[in-house]
Amino acid sequence: MNLKNSTAILLLLAGRVLAAGATAEIKVDQVGYLSGSPKVALVASKNAASEFTVRRASDGGVALRGALSAAVDDPDSGDRVQAADFSKLIVSGKYYVEIAEVGRSWEFAIGPDVYGRAWYLAMRSYYGQRCGTAVDLGSEFPGFKHDACHLEGAWHASSGKSGPQASKAGWHDAGDYGRYVVNSGLSTGTLLWTWEMFGPQVRGVKLNLPETGNGTPDILNEIRWNLEWMLTMQDEDGGVWHKQTSERFPGFVMPEKDKLVSYVVGSGAEPFKTSCATGDLAAVMAVAGRAYKPFDAAFAAKSLRAAEKAWTWLGKFPKVTFRNPQAVSTGEYGDGNCADEALWAAAELYRTTGGAEYQKYFLAHYAEFAGSVRATGPQSWPNVANLGLWTYVLGGGKDAEATGAIRKASLAAADQIVDRTKANGYRISMTSRDYIWGSNAVAANYGMQLLVANAFQRKPAYVEAALDNLHYLLGRNTFSLSYVTQVGANPFRHPHHRPSGADNNAEPWPGLLSGGPNHGKQDAAMKRLPADTPPAKCYLDDQEAYAANEVAINWNAPLVFLLAGVGTAR
Q1: In the predicted model, is pLDDT for residue 287 greater than 80?
Q2: In this predicted structure, what is the pLDDT of residue 570?
Q3: Where in the chain is the domain with CATH 2.60.40.10?
Q4: What is the pLDDT of residues 405-432, one digit of tens each?
């Protein structure tokens, strides 16, 4: 851990008064609160306090005064927490919370569309992750650019082929430069769902991409960059190779400086492609087959053909799993059960085509995954059955027994999540066990789960609990830290992200969600934390703390979904 990062964290953990006169003891969503939604700040201070004041940032004038709630203990953080409820304040503007015995909070906004900028940055972060092309964030972020990278690829011996292979498009998966079909599946699928569920909210947002202005909404323009790469990973027989990476992780260099060979990596034995990757591609391309049809019918048709070919292959090879071949040490994304990917693929293909074959498969297998829609443990890259179950209902599935069972389970789980969120000291849906590698994505995926339930049955409590998880990610947490780079007054600044660590910019690349607290502490930096550190405090804003502070496309995706959905799902 370097000295600069250590000093920053020590100040943060100590709760001292930070820059701009704000204190970490008062926790607010540093982006803001929707005008008509509940508005709560949280206070964790050793100083006893009973009242709070909300002041206008423009002149310091009093906007509202109120009483703090009784303190509650939050075992996951070790904090004793009070709430400052200022929901009655609905006038748009910028504010801060002040408590005489404690200090003042970071500034935040109140308004009808406070999350627009955060959504733009979170979604545009994928442009920054583009592989195979030069990237330049432009005058808005001068100096945030890199040259074309990873233009040459090759077949790895494990793929069943040899020689050079074109390396084209896709997103760098995380803080490294690998590309992984399985993780791309969940990530791209979640982003496509954002378009399908909240299209009116995001349709007109310009992401300032090279493709901007081509007649296709920019969210779909950006998603297509990754879809194009996924298509290159499909063999003629319909099967899909698992990943395209170097044999080992590169050092902290800019993308174009990474000269390790980018290999297409397979299973190492016949049929060389894998079932989970093939199922994920089938599902995602089926969604693309309907999403792009109004804008590029030819690409939509190409995507659907790829989905159908993948489905045919999956029927022949349903259980081909993946483990890293010898000498390959990049991300494995190994999954011992690909039946959930097959269920998702069947549901999306049925929704797109109405084909009887796909519904027959879905109805024959959906009950096996009834327990996947639950109050603990939302969807993740190894567990995508939820997406299959939900899309059958969202797409108007005709079997009343199936749709009824899925709705009932989804609403019951959402009700339990709401109750747990209300009882949590930090008003989040997380359990003690949820502070794992990528815990911030767990919080965001709970939010996604709640918004899907809200699509089944409108219930303000679902949206409010989803917002609570968003508030946590944007600063209302034990550290009073926005977990999204360059978002909020006090964002984390040292992600495990090679472009952020290797460039000459003082700040990290914008719009990236930190992995978040992780009680597993699987890296050397994290292991230096005391053994009895509460799970919600197992975090360091340090580049070396990859188990807590890496970024990843599958973590940003539910954040994009959540930011788009909370303003439209009411």
Answers
A1: yes
A2: 59
A3: 21-30+32-114
A4: 999 999 999 999 999 999 999 999 999 9
Shortest CA distance to 417 belongs to which of 386, 381, 453? 453
Q: Tokens for 128?
A: 């920054």
CA–CA gap between residue 535 and residue 518 (Å, rounded): 7
409: CB partners within 8 A, 6+ apart: 370, 373, 374
Candidates 74, 107, 434, 541; catalytic one: 541
For 315-364, what is each residue's pLDDT tens digit?
999 999 999 999 999 999 999 999 999 999 999 999 999 999 999 999 99
Q: Which CATH superfamily is domain 21-30+32-114 in?
A: Immunoglobulins (2.60.40.10)
* Catalytic hit among 29, 79, 98, 176: 176
- Residues whose CB falls within 8 Å of the CB of residue 150, separated by 6 or more in sequence, listed in order: 131, 132, 167, 177, 255, 258, 262
DSSP codes joined into one string, 518-533: -TT--SHHHHTS-TT-
Per DSSP, the chain holds a count of helices (H) and strands (E) of 16, 17
C-alpha to C-alpha distance for 246 and 172, rounded to whole angstroms:
12
State the Cα–Cα distance between residues 425 and 179, nearest whole angstrom.
38
Instruction: Read off φ and ψ for residue 178, nearest 5 degrees.
Output: -80, 160
258 is catalytic: no
- Residue keyed to tokens 């190492």: 268
Residue 566 CB neighbours (<10 A): 27
Q: Is 435 left (phi over 0), alpha (psi -120 to 50) or beta?
A: beta
The third-level CATH classification (topology) of the domain covering 116-477+550-565 is Glycosyltransferase (1.50.10)
pLDDT category, 20, cuts 50, 70, 90?
Answer: low
pLDDT at 48: 86
**Mean pLDDT confidence for 492-519:** 98
Structure tokens at 552: 């990843």
Q: How confident is the model at residue 21 (pLDDT cuts 50, 70, 90)?
A: confident
What's the Cα-to-Cα distance from 1 to each of 46, 142, 277, 436, 551, rounded to whole Å?
29, 28, 36, 21, 18
Structure token digits, residue 281: 């591609």
Amino acid at 127: Y
Helix (H, G, I), strand (E, B) or coil at 262: strand
Contacts of residue 537, Cβ cutoff 8 Å, sequence gap at least 6: 13, 77, 78, 478, 479, 517, 529
Establish whether 242 is a catalytic residue: no
pLDDT confidence tier of residue 569, bands split at 50, 70 and 90: low
Is 247 marked active-site? no
Catalytic position from the list 146, 156, 496, 519:
496
Please tell me what DSSP assigns to residue 20: G
Tokens read off for 339: 């039946």
**What are the start and end residues of each CATH 1.50.10.10 domain in the chain?**
116-477+550-565
Check if the beta carbon of residue 473 is closer than 8 Å to that of residue 444. Answer: yes
Rounded to 5 degrees, what angle do the CA atoms 339, 513, 457 make? 55
Q: Which residues pair with 33 in a beta bridge?
A: 110
What pTM was computed for the model? 0.96
The dihedral built from the CA positions of residue 509, 515, 517 and 523, taken in this order, carries a sign that is negative
434 flagged as catalytic: no
